[in-house]
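Hi P.,

Sorry for the delay on this. The queue was packed all week, but I finally got your sequence through. Input first:
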Amino acid sequence: MDDRIRKWKDAEIAHKNAEEWNDLPNGRKYSHSDFDISIAHCKPPTLSRMGQKHQGDRTYWETEEEFNQAMLRYLVDNWDSHYPKILEILKQNELVALNDCQSYIDEVQYFISTRREELKEI
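Then the structure:
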């Protein structure tokens, strides 16, 4: 399988999995579960900046745990406004990968038709 097709399939799966995960609260509920996001079971995001303040100084600067926990709380508390934007990024990733596949197909078709014309001349 061409790498472009694999990237598209991966992007498609990521997009579909995100939709399925976000739709869990709308599906069948089991026992006492309401499918809320459980902060206690989440891994908070960590952001890194790259750059040196001084020659020979450290290069990567990561956010501290309290900041990470605050980012997690912010994401969860505002999930309904974040999710559509996140889903749009995943859809755009899939579309870019799909367009790369189409470019590959167009290129192959061009080479095939060019070669056919060359062979007709023989």
